[in-house]
TrEMBL record:
Keyword Signal part of the UniProt annotation: yes
Sorted UniProt keywords: Signal
Higher taxonomy: Bacteria, Pseudomonadati, Thermodesulfobacteriota, Desulfobacteria, Desulfobacterales
Leader peptide range in chain numbering: 1-24
Protein name per its UniProtKB record: Lipoprotein
Length: 166
């Protein structure tokens, strides 16, 4: 009987000891999980712009297009820039068409004409003193974009000559 009593008390002590370890272990895990729930503010990830203004301050260009320098000519005079900006990139012509349609109007350009063909799209815009022609050409590897900016004829100062009178 003594052995049985000893076994039952040992079993009871082990059971209580196991229960205490379990309870204290659960409390330990709860405390450990609290810092995981409270997250410290992470520094904001620097957002890369999806579009930029290159040589013309009011013509937004997708960031994925790169300038082809040997096919680009920009002339700057005081208060005015004109020329042809040639770019290339691996973008869909339709997405470029929609991009320029939306952003040129946001930059206060008026739409004069849009011509879409299977491999070429031409878009013509106008402001009070200048016009813009955007040509989008799809080729095998790249899509090419040409942005031409020129003064409108009414904005060019013309000096009358005697040759104009008949």
């Amino acid at each position: 009987m003594q052995i049985r009593h000893c076994l039952s008390s040992t079993f009871l002590v082990c059971l209580i000891f196991t229960a205490l370890i379990s309870v204290s272990g659960c409390g330990h895990f709860e405390g450990a999980s609290e810092p995981e729930q409270v997250q410290s503010p992470q520094p904001e990830v620097e957002k890369k712009p999806v579009a930029v203004y290159h040589d013309f301050e009011d013509v937004l260009v997708p960031e994925d297009l790169t300038i082809i320098k040997d096919r680009t000519v920009v002339v700057s005079t005081p208060g005015f820039r004109s020329g042809i900006l040639t770019l290339k990139g691996r973008l869909e012509p339709n997405s470029l068409y929609h991009f320029f349609s939306i952003n040129m109007e946001k930059d206060n350009w008026d739409v004069l004409s849009r011509i879409k063909a299977p491999e070429t799209t031409i878009m013509v815009f106008q402001k009070a003193t200048r016009c813009a022609v955007i040509t989008i050409r799809e080729q095998q590897i790249y899509t090419y974009v040409e942005i031409g900016i020129a003064p409108t004829l009414g904005s060019i100062s013309q000096t009358p000559t005697n040759d104009a009178i008949y």
